[in-house]
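Marked as duplicate of an earlier ticket. Keeping the data here for the record.
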Amino acid sequence: MEGKQTIMRRSALAAIAAIGSASLLLSACSKADDNSDNNGNKSAGANAATKGVVNASTQKGGTVTYEYSDVPDSFDPGNTYYAYMYNLSRLYARPLMTFKPAAGEAGNELVPDLAASPGEPSDGGKTWTYKLRSGLKYQDGTPITSKDVKYAVERSNFARDVLSLGPNYFQQFLEGGDKYKGPYKDKSAEGLKSIETPDDTTIVFKLNRAFQEFDYLVATPQTAPVPQAKDKGIDYVKSIVSSGSYQFESYEEGKQAVLVRNKNWDAKTDPLRKQYPDKIVVKLKVNAETIDQDVQAGTAIDLGGTGVQAATQAKVVNDASLKANTDNTYGGRLVYMAINTQVAPFDKVECRKAVQYAIDKVSVQTAEGGPIRGDIATTVLPPDIPGYEKADVYATDGNKGDAAKAKEQLKACGKSTISTNISARSDRPQEIDAATAIIASLKKVGINASLKQYPSGKYFTDYAGVPEFDKKQNIGLHMMQWGADWPSGYGFLQQILHGDAIGASGNTNLSYIDDKEINETLEKAIATEDEAERNSLYAQIDKRAMDQAAIVPLTYFKVLLYRPANFTNLVSTAAFSGQYDYLNIGTTKK
């Protein structure tokens, strides 16, 4: 999951009782201490939201405002792939399973959402059966059925020419997924045969191979129900039918979305959501520095959840009263540079190794904001993902690069100089700064890279994620940040290393690596029941990817969030890369 962040530290897949946030608020409340900010408001203290719920409250009313510096890929739950949209979408789109609203690693626990209980596996993990809760309704009062969930999966995974922005796990793992053309082309009433709906509350998924972590897969918003009669393809985003506690009052593309309470949402069918604010406003294309100012003023929440800007960071970390309002935590993410194995001369491993040795990672870390924004990385898997094993294949003195070794590899590649381009997102200043530091490192060894900037909302659909575009523009290097689609080695690695994840657009495998050994080991891992054995296989995949020099790990990402006053029920969750859980945030202001 891009930006995305989402991370596992337990075996899961066991039946887990849904835990409502009311009990969470009672058991994990962070009470205010003697810390206060410059406005005299009391603070719960630094990192309080990573340990419990800050400003726990059941107060209803008011407006919660989110701000974002760009535009999201899509509000459509079946056509999004950013962590913050996975997080936000749960307000209006209920998947079969989701993550428990809880602090830190406790937030990685799966709980039933639309489903009444976790999936029932059979046939060695090749068949998964879910029963829906009773009494579920859309915003218009019509019943939600298993057929709507089936349709949601079909449209999100099998109509890639229409909806290309989300992952395609279901397409890869469902029987007949390689042949089904999707509901916009296949007009048969039966649809994809490997998703069965024997009655309105039962849905059965038949897989082409064992998938021991399937409960995590159905926690994506792609399983949030969509009524087929109301679907408008790419334009469904303009009239989304809510299954959650909030519904769209208005949507102005590229500008703003306003959500209000869904009157047909029934708390009896939903132990997770509490429907506290009257209204939720999402403002788009807000200047990043303005967002920081609004967050500090207590009038907005940073939707992207990637942390404060550099100037704000310097201000808050050097002021004890301001620092007391921050949450600094690992986001289960890797900041890295993908080396495009399809763009010459990086189709040769020696040229890729030259890049590995050339980069001064300390300069990159500094450009990103220093150690508070991430530890220097040497592996694909971050330390808080199962399968991580400490290693440093391209070790250099002090992590500052080794020009001599880089030039050795260039010579072995048959080159003395290389001219290429490096892509980065124009609305992410720290990413631009990191890319600029990399360019300086590469220049010292004869690799001349020019920076190409593209907006994050189109980064994967129109630019870096389009192989033909990369080749035409000679983009051999891509700035990237990645977190697990779900908390496991497979959830982290599959979409950035498996050959099946590569398509004509919308790619997150920006290395465009299609390695037989990696592909086969990933498939073996996901079919393995024993967790320790699975994790060992994930470590092997990490090593293979580094040996192939397809990814340059830069930093193990840490987020520095400023905790806005006036908002209630703030809790930083590992499930969404350290972001605050957006499910039940309220406000003290009417």
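See parent ticket for discussion. The first helix runs from residue 21 to 27.
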